[in-house]
Design brief:
Blueprint: H1 7-54
Keywords: Coiled coil
Coiled coil: 11-45
């Protein structure tokens, strides 16, 4: 059994899927950065409160 596939169409489809995957990765990277920034901010706030309470 053989399937005729136009290489150009296959490459276009592959490119579309790759672009979708790249977009998802970029969104995940942005979300990771947001969570990391929030975590760092929370840690600074906790450190500040701890130091303030020690004084």
């Amino acid at each position: 059994m053989t399937v005729d596939v136009d290489v150009s169409d296959a490459l276009k489809a592959l490119g579309k899927e790759a672009n979708k995957a790249l977009k998802v990765l970029e969104e995940l990277q942005q979300k990771k950065d947001e969570v990391l920034n929030e975590t760092m901010h929370d840690q600074r706030r906790e450190d500040f409160e701890r130091i303030r309470n020690e004084i």
